[in-house]
Amino acid sequence: MGDVTPLWEVFIRPRNGLAHKHVGSLHAADEALALSAARDVYTRREEGTSIWVVRSEAIAASDPARAGENFDPAEDKIYRHPTFYKIPDDVGHM
Amino acid sequence: MYSQGLIGADSRTEETDEFLAAFQARIDAEEKIEPTDAMPEGYRRTLIRQIGQHAHSEIVGMLPEGNWITRAPSLKRKLALLAKVQDEGGHGLYLYSAAETLGVTREQMTEELHAGKAKYSSIFNYPALSWADMGAIGWLVDGAAIMNQVALCRCSYGPYARAMIRVCAEESFHQRQGYEIMLTLCNGTKEQKEMAQDALNRFWWPALMMFGPHDGDSAHSEQSMKWKIKRFSNDALREKFINATVPQAEFLGLTVPDPDLEWNAEKGGYDHGDIDWDEFWRVVKGDGVMNRERVQMRKDAWDNGAWVREAALAHAGKRAAKVAAE
Ligand SMILES: [Fe+2]
Ligand SMILES: [Fe+2]
C-alpha cells in the first residue's frame, strides 16, 4: 500500500483564558488518531487543556515572496501609533 | 515544525554572489530562517542531514533503555525509565517534523535509516549490559546530549531551534534520574558500586565521542559555524562536558577511566587523554557491537507495524467516502 499517512498541524490551549497556539505537526490517518497522537507527543507535561488538529494541506498561507509588500513596517502610517499625537505633559498620563 | 503544506515557495534558489551575501547578512544579523525563506541549497542539505541524524538518534536511542524497562529494580525506576523512553520518542518526532519543513519526507528519512544510509549517534551502538548502564546512560549520554542541544537552541533555522527548546526542557529529568541511579548504586553494596564503576568505564569514552571528531577533522564544521547551524565547536563542547562531569564522578566516589586526566589550573579545565578515533570511525561506519541489531529492530518495528498503518488509512478512507456519500 503506497498511501502516505497525512500530515496534521497541532494547536494547544495551554490553559483557559489563552488562545490555542501552534506547537508542531505529526502524521496520522484520521482526526481521532491525530488527536490521540497529539496528546501523547505534545502534552506529556500538562502543556494544555485543549487540542486542535488540522490537516496541513487545509491551511492557506500568505505568499512568502510577497512578505515585503505585506508586512514591511508601515513607515508611512505612523499616525496609527499613539506617539504621533502631541499632548502636553501637563495633561498628565493619557 | 511548520507543515510542508505551508511551504508554497519554490525552493530552488539561484545562488548568485548577491544572494549568498544577502543570506549570510541575515544570519550575521541573528535573524532566524523559516521554512518558506529562500536559502542556499547547501544550508538546506546540511540541515536535512543534521536534523535527520538527530531524529534517528532519538529513535534508535530508545532501544538500549527500552530493553531494560521490564527489568527495572523498582516501580519508581520503571516509571522513570518508561517516561524517559517515551520522551525520546517524542524528541524524534519533533525533529522529524522539523526536517520535513525542509522538503524531505518522513518516508525518505525512514528508508535511509533502514538502508543504513543515514547515520545516528555512535553511542547507541554500544550494548547496555547491566542496570547500572541505565544510570550511566542518563548521566553521561543525556548529559552530553544536553551540552549539544542547549547550544542548538540558538540555531539559525527556526523550526530546529524551536524543537531544541522543547527537547531541552525535557532532558534535564533524564540526566538527573540517571545520576540518581548511579548515586543509589554507589551508596549500596560493594558489588553495586562495582557495577556503577564498570558502567562508567564502558560509557566514558563513547560519551566523549558523542561530540564528534576534533574540529580540524570535522567535515562540515566550518560552514555550519558560519551559517550558525552550529554555535560551538565539537572540542569546545567536549571540554565543557568533561569539566562539568569529572566533579560529579568524584562525588560518586568513582574513577574516570582516563589515567591522563588532570586539572590544569592555568586553563581552568581538565587535560585528558587521547580519544580512540579508530574505534569512533569503526562504530560510525557500521562496525560497532550493536549496529546491525539496532537497525534490524527499527526495520522489524516498521514492518510489523505496516498492517496497523494500512488498516488506519483504509478505515479513514472508508469513513471519508461514507461522509461524502451522505
Ligand atoms: Fe532526547
Ligand atoms: Fe534524553
Radius of gyration of chain B (Å) = 22 Å
CATH class placement of chain A: Alpha Beta
Major sheet attributes of chain B: 2 strands, antiparallel
Record field, number of beta strands of chain A: 3
Biggest beta sheet summary of chain A: 3 strands, antiparallel
Number of domains of chain A: 1
Mean pLDDT of chain B: 93
| Residues in helices of chain A, as a percent range | 10-25%
Structural class of chain B: mainly alpha
The count of DSSP E runs of length 2 or more, i.e. the number of strands of chain B, is 2
Query: Fraction of residues of chain B in helices?
Result: 55-70%
Q: Which descriptors would you attach to this protein?
A:
heterodimer; A: 94 residues; alpha+beta; Ubiquitin-like (UB roll); three-stranded antiparallel beta sheet; 3 strands; 18% helix; B: 326 residues; mainly alpha; two-stranded antiparallel sheet; 2 strands; globular; disordered N terminus; binds fe (ii) ion
